[in-house]
Write a structure and sequence with these properties.
alpha+beta, Immunoglobulin-like, Coagulation Factor XIII, Chain A, domain 2, 8-stranded mixed sheet, 6-stranded antiparallel sheet, 16% helix
Length: 679
């Protein structure tokens, strides 16, 4: 007959276990482990010694407010000779004695979350269990160490914005290991409506990364629940801050957690995506932020974007369908045992509230392979994501007499789908993961699967008259510059045309602002094979009040053949460059040593800057806080704004210092610098 161990106390070996489980960046003051991987607890006996075969110890674990064996949220088990990684198990790994090294392991499909463990019925301890992408039995297993460092452990990254002709890097502090962030992420799970309705069932669902990603997609926005962020695509940010003011997820998650789960104001797509990425990585799901340029927003599920213009070539209302200059979502890595084979790997899910899915503002996760192959019956929301990267665009002109006419346009959605490269700040083009090359046989087959109209027929260009928009290489905010409409006559006869060429400020989601330049040429004459290059001057004093915070200008050229009446439309979004923030690190970068960042920005505008403010943040650099320094003086045209900001790094390694400059006339200029912190 075995004798139960008489336990006095124990040591959770937090520093050893957390380091072994790659959770030590969360701190080592409590036990945080990953599922499917053993951890060690030192057990000290009050009396007697442990003897193999003669000693027993009963263990139990519970998670959630209503743990049940059948839900997998409660388990009981005794000592075994060896650890069994397929179920909850425990084994002694030390020789006989009054101090016992107890190895404990969870199954690789255990629900994640907070656990209470009881040893021998005499005492309890708590720990947190996370997904384990290093464990082959876990659905989120990833077999590439460089990818794991990037998509799970990296606390900062790059998000691509700008335009598809000119992708622009925006540095972001994901900060998933900063103090309090993991607790905020677990609280997000506990605030979701499914948990509030049935906590036992919801906690059981947390074994499944598909379920967790779907919850996060709904909870990062606050449209149906006490989610994290409130979206705002207007120019009025009263009661909150512009989405462009955020440099990282840490302050957002801290504010939400600190303020009784009241939504943080405000977010737009890249902010929603970045926060979802932070939460996913914190929970152990490999994740990355993806940018889709010229992203379609299909509101009626017909896989076609219908756009309307007036007789000047400017967009008018006629459909809720939109083509965003870019749109960001996230991809998470996991297997999909709920689908037929071949659809494991990257799964797209989108926390930006656009359309409802099963009655809730969420989207995904859907396999990238399903989008590429046109498998639109697959869960979840495949048609919507398919349209974002593949929808056809039809353009119609609304005439003053009320009639409409189809216009030839060469707009292609789903361009330069981008994410940060592994191990560098370079852009990785992942368009090939979402779609076959335009016009290829494989793309045609994917469209047929999707019951889609033939894009080749819909995108035939006018082979007679060709219209494009060209721009100069440098377009800096504060400067005057020219853009050009280029008309080519590819026919064998003379052509006489009318050209309307206009420009308007535009937000990244396609909402048009004020006019900032227009030209109407009644008689553009072209001989066979001839070309005409028509300039449009964009003056700062004209476009400065039309620009949105996105620094984008929409160029639209409309060409009308005077003989046939046929119309051709060319569109292009251009992004104006902000000035560079120069970052100089003063002092030798060492762990726990105070440093200074000298920040300099030259005013490029022909007017003064007031209320100038620099701010910095960075994972393991600024203590989970934003550090701000204001300038007392006005900065005149051509003058430098310069400050020193002090910070103390807490960890060694390559860290990203994210910088922001704000003022009355030059808003949210962003930059970053990679800093190597020595030990």
């Amino acid at each position: 007959m075995t004798q139960a161990l008489d336990i006095s106390h124990w040591d959770l070996q937090c520093e050893f276990n957390n380091t072994d489980h790659r959770t030590n960046l969360n701190g080592v003051d409590r036990l945080i482990v990953r599922r499917g991987q053993p951890f060690t607890v030192s057990v000290f006996l009050r009396s007697g010694v442990y003897q193999p075969g003669d000693s027993s110890l009963h263990c139990s674990v519970e998670t959630g407010p209503h743990p049940y064996d059948q839900y997998g949220t409660r388990a009981s088990f005794d000592l075994s000779a060896n650890i069994n990684t397929s179920c909850w198990s425990s084994a002694v790994t030390s020789p006989p004695g009054n101090t016992v090294a107890l190895s404990i392991c969870s199954p690789p499909d255990a629900p994640i979350g907070r656990y209470t463990m009881t040893l021998g019925g005499v005492g309890q301890f708590e720990f947190i269990l996370l997904f384990n992408p290093w464990c082959q039995g876990d659905w989120v297993y990833m077999d590439n160490e460089d990818n794991l460092k990037e998509y799970v452990l990296s606390q900062d990254g790059i998000i691509f914005r700008g335009s598809y002709k000119r992708p622009i890097q925006t540095a972001w502090n994901f900060g998933q290991f900063e103090t309090g962030i993991l607790d905020a992420c677990l609280r997000i799970l506990d605030m979701n409506p499914k948990y509030l309705r049935n906590p036992g069932k919801d906690c059981s669902g947390r074994r499944n990364p598909i379920y967790v990603c779907r919850v996060l997609s709904a909870m990062v926005n606050c449209n149906d629940d006490k989610g994290v962020l409130l979206g705002n695509w207007t120019d009025d940010y009263d009661g909150g801050v512009s989405p462009l003011s955020w440099k990282g997820s840490v302050e957002i998650l801290q504010n939400w957690d600190r303020n009784a789960c009241q939504p943080v104001r405000f977010g737009q797509c890249w902010v929603f995506a970045a926060v979802a990425c932070s939460v996913s990585r914190a929970l152990g799901i490999p994740c990355r932020v993806t940018t889709n340029y010229l992203s379609a927003h299909d509101t009626n599920n017909n896989l076609v974007i219908e756009r309307y213009i007036d007789e000047d070539g400017q967009s008018t209302r006629g459909s809720r369908d939109m083509v965003w200059n870019y749109h960001c979502w996230v991809e998470s890595w996991m297997t999909r045992p709920d689908l037929k084979s071949g659809f494991d790997g990257w799964q797209a899910f989108d926390p930006t509230p656009q359309e409802k899915s099963q009655g809730v503002y969420c989207c995904g996760p859907v396999p990238l392979k399903a989008i590429k192959e046109g498998e639109l019956v697959f869960k979840y929301d495949a048609p919507f994501v398919f349209a974002e990267v593949n929808a056809d665009v039809l353009t119609f002109m609304k005439k003053k007499d009320g009639s409409t006419e189809k216009v030839t346009s060469s707009v292609l959605v789903g361009q330069k789908i981008s994410t940060k490269s592994v191990g560098s700040d370079a852009r990785e083009d992942i368009t090939h993961l979402y779609k076959y090359p335009e016009g290829s046989a494989e793309e045609r087959e994917a469209f047929e699967k999707a019951n889609h109209q033939n894009k080749l027929l819909q995108q035939q260009e006018n082979q007679g008259l060709h219209l494009t928009i060209k721009v100069t290489s440098e377009m800096r905010k504060g400067c005057d510059f020219d853009v050009f409409a280029v008309v080519t006559n590819n026919t064998s006869s003379d052509k006489k045309c009318r050209l309307k060429f206009g420009s308007r400020g535009v937000s990244y989601n396609g909402k048009l602002g004020k006019n900032c330049g227009f030209k109407d040429l009644l008689n553009v004459e072209l001989s066979p094979g001839g070309e005409r290059r028509v300039p449009l001057r964009l003056n700062y004093e004209k476009y400065c009040d039309a620009l949105t915070e996105d620094n984008l200008i929409r160029l639209a050229a409309l060409l009308i053949d005077s003989t046939t009446g046929e119309a051709t439309l060319a569109l292009r979004n251009v992004v104006l460059d902000n000035p560079e923030i120069k970052v100089r690190i003063l002092g030798e970068p060492k762990q726990n040593r105070k440093l200074a960042a000298e920040l300099t920005l030259q005013n490029p505008l022909p007017k003064s800057l007031e209320n100038c403010c620099f701010s910095i943040e960075g994972a393991n650099l600024t203590g989970g806080h934003v550090i701000t320094e204001r300038l007392a003086s006005t900065v005149g045209p051509g003058e430098d704004a310069k400050v020193k900001i002090y910070f103390t790094p807490t960890h060694s390694g390559v860290r990203k210092l994210v910088v922001d400059f704000d003022s009355n006339n030059l808003c949210h200029v962003q930059g970053y610098r990679n800093v190597i912190i020595g030990k």
